[in-house]
Design goal:
By secondary structure, the chain is mainly alpha-helical. The protein has two domains: 35-81, no CATH class; 84-123. It contains four helices and two strands, in the order H-E-H-E-H-H. Strands 1-2 form a two-stranded parallel sheet. Strand 1 (39-42), helix 2 (46-58) and strand 2 (64-67) form a beta-alpha-beta unit. Helix 3 (92-98) packs across helix 4 (103-122). The longest helix is centred in the C-terminal third of the chain and has 20 residues, at 103-122. It is flat, with a radius of gyration of 19 Å.
């Protein structure tokens, strides 16, 4: 017998709605044959996307190629709730209890990280 939760989720899609947006560009075909680039970034999650973006900003003439085995932003990076916070330690109390001598520096780095993310979005 199906539970209320089973019935409620029966028609739910396993993909977040923002990954199925009609505004999302279509997937590009897989690479075939030799390819050249000044920089190849493997992995289209947060780290890979940020690396490719920073590389282009530092040198707009640089040929940057971003590759991913699946869909860029389609794994863990694209499946979060969309929250951004300055904490690098899953909460200030957690950070202070685990790294008391480094808590101030971790907090400062977290704020710097969030500020840089906001600045990048503003660009």
């Amino acid at each position: 017998m199906a539970t209320a939760i089973d019935r409620a989720l029966r028609d739910a899609a396993p993909t977040p709605y923002w990954l199925d947006s009609p505004l999302r560009p279509p997937a590009r075909p897989p690479l075939s044959g030799p390819t050249e680039a000044d920089l190849v970034v493997v992995g289209g999650g947060y780290t890979g996307l940020w690396t490719a973006l920073c590389a282009k900003e530092r040198d707009p003439g640089r040929d940057v190629l971003l590759v991913d085995a699946e869909r860029v932003g389609g794994a863990a990076s694209g499946r979060n709730g969309g929250f951004c916070a300055a904490s690098l330690t899953h909460g200030d109390d957690n950070g202070r209890s685990r790294w008391p001598s480094e808590a101030g520096r971790l907090e400062a780095l977290g704020h710097q990280n969030l500020d840089e993310l906001v600045a990048a979005l503003d660009r």
